[in-house]
Amino acid sequence: MFHEVVDDAVGDGGGTTTADEEHSDVTATELRSAFARALSETATDIGRSRIRDEIGLDAGSADAALNGDVDGLTVADGAAVLALSADRDADAVVAELRDHLLMGMTTAVLDVDTIAAGIDADLTGQEVQQALEGRAAMTVGELAEIASLIERRKR
Prior knowledge:
9 helices, single chain, globular, mainly alpha
């Protein structure tokens, strides 16, 4: 579901496009805004009490999703909100996202050290790898940084 937001942002002409490019260079800020909008709309539709009761998010994370304050929200928590609305498994949503990111890295010929050097998030190559593999939590803000770099490098 997060990867669909990325695809929509790139496909809708979000970002800048040069005369020599057929795709747009979506920025981390644009993706962060798109993620915030998707999470806020979904969280509003399903309601705070349902988020707390059915997903078990703490009050701060539930409020972050509702208010679109996604920089510190974990991808796992965001995926749980999106999955609840679509009646999908949150773990499957996260697995799909990881697959999408890893396939994008392959297409863009990127390694984790290059990603770490190319994003504003304060992550080392090892931390990027751990986040992509699910061994460490990734925030939605970090996801926006990583996904935008991957999309910019796909050519």
